[in-house]
Amino acid sequence: MLRVLMFAGIVFALVAAAGAPLQAQAPDAGRNQIITTGMGRVDVPPTQAVVTVGVQVQRPTAAEASQEAGRVTEQILARVTQAGIRRQDIRTSGVALRPVFTQPRDGAPRITAYQAVNTLTVTINELRLVGPVLDEAVRAGANTISGPSFGLRDPSDPRREALTLAVREAREKAEAIARAAGLQIKGIERIVEEGVDVQVRMLERAIPSPAQGATPIEPGTVGVVARVTIVFTF
Hints:
Blueprint: H1 2-24, E1 33-44, E2 48-59, H2 62-82, E3 90-102, E4 110-124, H3 130-139, E5 144-151, H4 156-180, E6 187-199, E7 201-202, E8 222-233
Antiparallel strand pairs: 1-8, 2-4, 2-5, 3-4, 5-7, 6-8
Helix pairs in contact: 2-3
């Protein structure tokens, strides 16, 4: 029995000793790889604008506040559609009604009025209409404006161009690394798209006065940025 145990121990030791060098000599999975990232950016003129217009009113009762906000909102809708915007490009983005409190020195807070807020989000597909839409909304009674923000109706072509530039940059990086190390790129093992972003541009502006002329709008450009990671082999 003792001989059997000794023999088994010797065999186990030989197997362990033989296995250790094999494991140490296992090839490094990443030793024939160069991993680089690339970014591509394309700046194009915007083809769409989005603006939020609204009205905020305060009246003694909730009914009066709600009715007045609704009346002005209808006027805004009429003016904006007359300016050339389709009704399907206008949506209600907010309706709020809240009490206004006062805090007497002695006693509990009490309601003194009600505030109603209605907002509309307008999508404008003809940029020449942005200024007139804002002006008409203010003439109709709008006293809150957010935007406009400029974007793209269809970003497909700029996305493809940005991705092409990103891949090109990643490859140029890998080739530069390979040349410096005396290596040669043989192929591509994997490409990962890290994302494509359309950088919507916001225009900060004050509410125009109804007495002023047409509001000037400069849309500028919209950036489309793509990022990729590529694993090259050598």
